[in-house]
Amino acid sequence: MNKAETVSGDVKRAISQATFGDAYSVVKQCGSYRRSGARSAVANLVYYSGLCAVQRSLRHRRGEVCVLGLHRILTDEQRSHASSLAAMSLRDETFRHMLAYLQRTYELISLEHLLSEKYPNTGKPLCLVTFDDGWADNYTTAREILLEFGVRPLIFIATGLIDSDGTFWEERLLNSLHSCNVRDFMPRLLSELHIKRRNIAPDELIGALKRMPEARRAPILAEFLGQGMTCVGNEMMSWEQLRRLRDLGFDFGAHTVNHPLLCYESDETVVRELTLSKKALEEKIGIRIHAFAYPSGNYDQRIKELVRQSGFDFAFTCEPRWSRSKGDSLAIPRFLLHEGCVTNRGDFSPAALEFTLTGWRQ
Question: Are 69 and 154 in contact (CB under 8 A)?
Fold first, then answer.
């Protein structure tokens, strides 16, 4: 018997004995089998057993909120030009089917409900949709789908690239890796980073660079990325587009100016990133900014205190849990979603989504 069959058998027994805690424990253990192809089978088993519905009901009774975090919504044509890592995007059709499911199963709330804590009582669990960064496809592609389902998302904006022809250094680096002679490019870059390995996956390389202070990372990247900022397929929104979304009822929060991982920066740099991004949004969009999202979910107690001192009422992390009504308002967890964790064989799968929302770590 293989591992997948063993796991499925354990889940079946737990479900048949109506032991929710045991079944949930088994589900949590299934993350290690994802690469073996068992994830979809286990997700279907748990979903169609009714276990996910039971969990949703329990969460709802406890007053918990499910917060979803997204980045990019892309058509197939846009995907062919985009440089972002796979964990950054959803296909437009996947997004449409996902919102249709969420509309049937959850009560989709706005930031206004979160601020007032006057939640609609429809008997459905509550769900808030958020986006990070300020990608142009949020306007060109996601906007019409969101309006179609009456969703008012909360979009966290990294203000430094709005209304420019630039994009994030991560996308520029991935472009360079695709367009340059990697056999020459990569060894020199790894040498600069004091990494002794000869090969490294793109996401690992980006992770290593992210964990550097901006002042140290910038000169290293300057040599390899050149002076040009334009990155076709990875454009950001303009201030005018943000104002149009505001008029449609969309909400906004701050996401720093330059998107550094804040724990690796000095207090002075962190405060500057927080205050300047908040100020720019309030001046350019003309609304009070209450919410903040930690870049890549990177925070600690020091950063939380600086966020509080900078005038934010809410701050969102990337910890995959439901948000408790009496939880820490400066550490609100979110489930970051992408194509790989909400689909099965290329199509949107309610089972895959709900399995992700059980909170097991992928």
Answer: no
Q: Which two tokens stand for residue 136?
A: 């142009």
pLDDT-wise least confident of 15-24, 162-171, 340-349: 15-24
Give whole-number Cα distances, 325 to 59, 175, 223, 244, 308, in Å: 11, 42, 48, 32, 19
Q: How far apart are CA 46 and CA 168, in angstroms?
A: 38
CA distance linking residue 278 with residue 312, whole number of Å: 9
pTM: 0.88
Asked if pLDDT for residue 13 goes beyond 60, the answer is no
Q: Which residues make beta-bridge pairs with 156?
A: 132, 253
31 pLDDT tier (thresholds 50, 70, 90) = very low
Say how far apart CA 18 and CA 8 lie, in whole Å: 15
